[in-house]
Request: fold
Amino acid sequence: MIFHIFNSSLISGPETLAMPALAEIKDKAQIIWLREARVSDEKQKHVASYMQSYGLTYHTIPVESRLDKQAVQKLKELFEKTENLEVAHAHDVKASFYLLKASEQIQNRKFQTISTHHGVFARSGFINHMYEKYYAHFILPKLDRTLTVCSSDRLVLIKRGLKPAQVVAHLNGVTRNRISQTDRLAAQKKIRQDWGLNVSEDTFVFGVAARLDHEKRHNLILDVAHELKSNHPNFKFVILCFGRGPLEESLKKRTKLLGLDNNVQWRGYRSHLGQEFAGFDSLLSLSSAEGLPINLIESGWAATPVFASNVNGVGDLVTAESLGTLVAADEDVKSIAAKIVGFAASKEKLAQVGLNFQAHVEKHFSQAEWLKNLLEIYRMGKG
Reply:
């Protein structure tokens, strides 16, 4: 038996990455949900619904505080009573903390303890950074193996003191509806109708799919949009920003201040956006930090080319110019704007880039590939 442990009050990257794949081996894999008692039932009911939709067996352990000793005890008891437990695999900080505390109380433990670190740099705020440092220095070294979602994160954790044999890069992979080139225009038209988007044929539609937080650099996107409008007046474009977060109101105010209401639209959260990326002419990502972005992989399934900053795991995914356009993390606004205009200049070239990217994602970054690689890691045993 394999346990995957989540501390979830919403469905985000780790859940959408792992749970659909685990449904393929649900006779061998189950979920342990560390459910935060401080979060209302109403806000968490979709977590249960999501697991149920994939037919996953899950165990719920209520967590009342940062260190709930009763929750640790219940987790330990679940480990001990589960026959043929081979792996207990936690996702990110708190789930890994509880895995460590419970497993330390088991004498002659036979199962592997594994944690996936879902992004060394892809988190903002002082408190989150402190949690990450505690996680990396005091939790991960005591577990049998650590998985990272990109190769650069692996190198960072080794530099922090983890043994090279203990850290494995397990690149993200998801499967979405594959949009063929012949179906793409019809799909794009329907998706844009569903969005209520009405633009001329010569308007280039960028999509941004990211929470509205500092490391996603929406303010940089606004600066680039202003540069495009001011100094490239013949380039018609609209940027659709999907997501919510703490910067939402300030970003909306700045959009008005810069006179970009006709060029930048704030669309809020959309639950099935990952299946609608064909609605974009390109996915735009100018983050200062990422793990290996699932939204870029989703873009590949739709044959939608990406324009992104080359940070962390992005380079693991977009490995050649024929697969997309990457700019340096410190690229200036004028340069980014000029490169965007050049990037969007030829629809024929972009279509080919989209096809190349789709084939690359389908071969190397599918859900099946992610699961195959994970099971191979399990067979490696302890680090």
In short: The first strand starts at residue 2 and ends at 6.
